[in-house]
Amino acid sequence: MDHLKTTRRLSVLALAAAATWSALPAFAQSKFIVMASTTSTEQSGLFGHLLPAFKAATGVDVRVVAVGTGQALDTGRRGDADIVFVHDPAAEEKFVAEGFSTQRRDVMYNDFVLVGPKADPAGVKGNNISAALKKLAGTPQPFVSRGDKSGTHAAELRLWQTAGIDVAKAKPAGYKDCGCGMGPALNMGSSLNGYVLTDRGTWLNFKNRGDLVVLVEGDKTLFNQYGVMVVNRSVFPHLKADLAQQFANWVVSPAG
After folding, report:
1. What residues contact residue 164 under an 8 Å CB cut-off, 6+ apart?
2. Phi, psi dihedral angles at 133 (to 5 degrees)
3. CA separation (Å) from 12 to 17, 61, 151?
4. How confident is the model over 104-152, as pLDDT tens digits?
5. Which of 17, 48, 180, 218 is the one with CA 20 to 30 A from 39?
């Protein structure tokens, strides 16, 4: 009887060990890529909808590092991301020219809007962003800038420049750098009852609006294009370029 009990116990242990070992390959072979992207794609709620659909279609998990576009591109330059998904076409073309990717592909677009207090004390309401920024520059009203080298920050600086204002030399009286993502910048704008340039997607998903409303929209210079680039495996052989290419192909397909 003791022999039978021992044999039975050993059989149970062997089955448990076999189950453990059979689970290991599935864990070891779990497929994922690292994506460096912008705070707007994360905070707008886009990835919460998009990435589960991609995983269902391919079995590939996507781990997102959400930072400003400039930081996302630098993450790719260090070989710390398999793919980048950002919105600053000029900076993206430079990334390709430097050899960090072999191709940039348009994925989607939205637009920027200027939000501010409903009463609009600076009188900027309309569809001309240059005129609006000139008015803002002449008032002490708070304007919250991302100040984080993101795609939105780069667009904002270009828009100030188009309006004939060099904020690098002389910032308007109410200009405030937050060095933060889009959501925190909007929170700061809401608390100050100030003006903020934001992408429309994040604005639509933003809940803490306070007294802020959209004041300037529809100007063609507010167009906001997003692109995707697989980081070059010939520069960083350790990267999962094949899986990253799967995402790039899927996201620009009808399914994506």
Report:
1. 130, 134
2. -70, -35
3. 9, 34, 58
4. 999 999 999 999 999 999 999 999 999 999 999 999 999 999 999 999 9
5. 218
**Rounded Cα gap, residues 118 and 126, in angstroms:** 13
Site of tokens 């060099």: 166
- Rounded to 5°, angle at Cα 33 from 28 and 39: 140
What is d(CA 101, CA 86) in angstroms, rounded to the nearest whole number? Answer: 13
Query: How many CA within 13 A on the CB side of residue 107?
Result: 25
Beta carbons of 210 and 190 less than 8 angstroms apart? yes
64: β partners:
35
Q: What is the DSSP string of 177-231?
A: E--S-HHHHHHHHHHHT-EEEEEHHHHHH----TTEEEEE---GGGEEEEEEEEB
Token pair, residue 215, equals 């004041």
